[in-house]
Amino acid sequence: MSVGSMWHRIFRINSVNEQEVVKEMKISIDREGCIECGACEQTCSEIFVVESGQKASIVRKYQKDVPDVGEIPDTLVSCANEAAASCPVQVISTG
Ligand code: SF4
User: Fold this and answer.
1) Residue 76 is part of which domain span?
2) Is the model's pTM score more than 0.85?
3) CB-based burial, 1-15: b 16+ in 10 Å, e otherwise
4) Which atom of ligand 1 is the closest one to the Cα of 86?
């Protein structure tokens, strides 16, 4: 095996491992208590959406079968926590 192909192989293995390292965190909204204020979406629109006249939902990309439960990548944990802190009725749970 040439040095070039060996480095190529090592690089590919590292790339695969980096993709596998992404962790996910559970997130949920107790929609019964949601007052539709929109603060979560204003704080973190990557995860939350509040359509006119409706309770908050998790964006479809991160939903787990239902609109109020999801899993997010670790890159969005701080965004989710800031949104949870912004909720005036504290109906967003993370972790
Ligand atoms: S911040 Fe809380 S109350 Fe406001 S829309 Fe989001 S989940 Fe509902």
Assistant:
1) 23-94
2) no
3) eeeeeeeeeeeeeee
4) 1
